[in-house]
Design brief:
Number of domains: 1
Organism: Chryseobacterium nepalense
CATH class: Mainly Beta
Protein name: Catalase
Structural class: alpha+beta
Distance between the termini: 52 Å
CATH topology: Catalase HpII,  Chain A, domain 1
CATH architecture: Beta Barrel
Helix content: 25-40%
Strand content: 15-25%
Order of helices and strands: HEEEEHHHEEEHEEEHEH
InterPro entries: Catalase_sf
Number of strands: 11
Number of helices: 7
CATH superfamily: Catalase core domain
């Protein structure tokens, strides 16, 4: 294989129009979070995405003994501490049994002193349906405004219509069928993926988490939150951690998120482990206020790309508003 391409800031640059739309979007995030307690009928302000927590747990990231020499200086310890949050992607907390099979597996990697090394918000769908930053910002703003009843459903449908063409790639359609086939499967049986690329030192990679030996029908008759808690209380969970390097921007595009990378093998760099009964209280204020902003990571682990760039301020706005509202609500469970 050729040497991987090196990170360049040009992949992240936003235009003036995109920056203006982003300011509007940030206001809609703040407005949504301010009303989120009533929207989800809970006693605290929630995130404006992945609002529902299934579980929070401690874990370990164990580096492979035969890791590539190119990465040995990046992972200079054999084992890293993790905090993990499992969630549903819906903006609201849905309390019925049936939920959309859109899941999050957010990982916080820490050093021996508990200092943050990297945040990775992973999801169970490997692609993203939008490449245009402007289209994404207009759609996300419309969704927020729809829920807080300031914009009509017609406006939201108009923005959704603009997204449909970018979901018609062979990669996207193939993965939609795979998700449909697994729609009733247990959350921990899914592979989880980074949304777009991340830096790994000087290089750019995508990340995949692949579970080992998880029964996809585990407690299928129970609500997902209950099933997850029962699984992690009764047994350990292990997943292989892979990265996929960017060697050629045509085969592994950074800002085209609706297609799979090709001609780049997945390389195992370690294993993620959650020990038996390592669950934390998901309802505690400390854990509910956990933030997995990938831009709080050390520079050599931060996201790459224009859509990714939006996450930095979006996470900050969401967290700042949640902290303010939850202090007012005196949420301290």
């Amino acid at each position: 294989m050729p040497d991987p391409l090196k990170y360049n800031r040009d992949y992240d640059k936003l235009t003036d129009e995109e920056k203006i739309l982003f300011e509007i979007n940030k206001k809609s995030i703040s407005d949504f979070v301010e009303q989120s307690a009533s929207l989800s009928d809970v006693n605290y302000a929630t995130r404006n995405a992945h609002a529902k927590t299934y579980a929070v747990a401690n874990g370990k990231f164990i580096i492979s003994e035969n890791i590539s020499p190119k990465l040995q200086h990046i992972f200079d310890k054999k084992v890293y501490d993790l905090t993990i949050r499992l969630s549903n992607a819906h903006l609201k907390i849905i309390k019925g049994k049936k939920e959309i099979p859109a899941y999050g597996f957010a990982v916080k990697i820490k050093d021996e002193q508990g200092n943050l090394i990297a945040n990775y918000p992973l999801v169970n769908f490997p692609l993203f349906p939008i490449n245009s930053v402007c289209t994404f910002l207009k759609l996300f703003t419309s969704i927020n405004q729809f829920y807080i009843k300031k914009w009509s459903s017609f406006s939201l449908l108009a923005q959704i219509a603009k997204v449909i063409p970018s979901t018609c790639t062979p990669s996207f359609i193939k993965n939609l069928f795979k998700l449909f086939h697994k729609r009733n499967d247990f959350i921990l049986s899914f592979d989880f993926h980074s949304v777009g690329a991340y830096r790994l030192g000087d290089y750019m990679v995508k990340i995949k988490l692949a579970p080992q030996f998880v029964d996809k029908k585990f407690n299928k008759n129970k609500k997902m939150k209950q099933a997850v808690e029962e699984y992690l209380k009764s047994r350990a969970f292990t997943a292989n951690v892979y990265v996929q390097f960017c060697y050629d921007i045509k085969d592994q595009p950074i800002n085209q998120l609706n297609v799979e990378w090709k001609n780049s093998p997945f390389i195992k760099i370690g294993e993620l482990k959650i020990g038996k009964d390592n669950l934390l209280n998901p309802a505690s204020c400390e854990n509910e206020l956990l933030s997995f902003n990938p831009y709080e990571s050390k520079a050599l682990f931060q996201p790459v790309g224009k859509i990714q760039r939006l996450r930095e301020e979006a996470y900050k706005v969401s967290l700042k508003t949640r902290v303010k509202i939850n202090k007012l609500l005196k949420y301290d469970t």
